[in-house]
Write a structure and sequence with these properties.
By secondary structure, this protein is an alpha+beta fold. 30% of the residues lie in helices and 29% in strands. It is built from 3 helices and 6 strands, in the order E-H-E-H-E-E-E-H-E. A 6-stranded antiparallel sheet has the order 2-3-4-5-1-6, covered by helices on one side. Strand 4 and strand 5 form a beta hairpin.
Length: 118
């Protein structure tokens, strides 16, 4: 079972506004908290911006909403690209409870009609 993947709409359209997405996520992942990541900060004149360089190499897009949900058996992190609207989501699962995490992702899909790509 995959430990990472993407959350998309089947029709290729954006997932929607963040307020709506947050409600969906809170229903399936109670207590999840999201914060808005605007990207790497500008480096000083003589500093090498390793975070910015890595972001460009990985094709990371900003801004993005980032969230974390923890249980005893797994942690799942989310990255929702785009401030308004949210374009797509990515997730990473950590821990031994991958099957439990996938059940919750399946609940999110049933609630929203989105698709999980691994």
């Amino acid at each position: 079972m995959a430990r990472q993947g993407q959350i998309v709409r089947a029709d290729g359209q954006p997932l929607g506004g963040f307020a709506d997405l947050e409600r969906f996520f809170l229903e399936v992942f109670p207590g999840i908290k999201f914060g808005l990541d605007h990207g790497p900060r500008p480096a000083g004149a003589n500093a090498f911006d390793i975070q910015g360089w890595l972001s460009k190499m990985k094709g990371t897009k900003f801004p993005a909403w980032v969230g974390l949900f923890e249980t005893r058996s797994f942690i799942i992190s989310f990255r929702l690209e785009g401030e308004q609207p949210v374009i797509k989501g990515q997730f990473n699962i950590y821990g031994h409870g991958i099957a439990d995490a996938r059940k919750r992702l399946d609940q999110l899909v049933a609630l929203t009609g989105w698709r999980i790509e691994t």
